[in-house]
Design a protein that fits this description.
single chain; 174 residues; mainly alpha; Rna Polymerase Sigma Factor, Chain: A; Arc Repressor Mutant, subunit A; 2 domains; 68% helix; 0% strand
Amino acid sequence: MDAATAERGLKLVKRLAWLRSNSLPPSVSLEDLVQEGFIGFMQAMTTYKDLGKATAETFAAYRIRGAMADYLRREDPLSRTARKTGGHVEFVAYDDDQHEGAEDPCAAAEFNQLLKSLIDAANQLSRREAWILRKLFIDGDTVTQIANELGTSKAYVSRVKTTMFEKLRVSVIV
């Protein structure tokens, strides 16, 4: 592949990634879409045969979109079925009366308010963050187990975990 073809391909990939990113949550990186799309472009260029049916650009656009879709499916913690049925991790409401009989009513009220703030903050997390939070604290999975299930690195899961904890900390403190 020559430099001019690669440059035209990169422009096409960036345009398709930008169009796709408009319908995605902000947690999905445009740069990651471009990277995956360019891999799709390179694969398309190595397999394209001019048979007069489609131009190389049209052929590449389908492969680029497919590579981006494959990437999004790999990164999505929900299965296709769960996604289709609208599966979303929802944190349940907390019963304020649970600590009503506590010895120190002020401490119980403070605890209830803190817990309510934490649940509200958890419900504002992205699907991926909420899923990782559930896997860590409800299912008791380790970062390694989560990374293996997602097909990503432990470092990626640790970064998501750190970002998630920071969001929760800021939401609860404010």
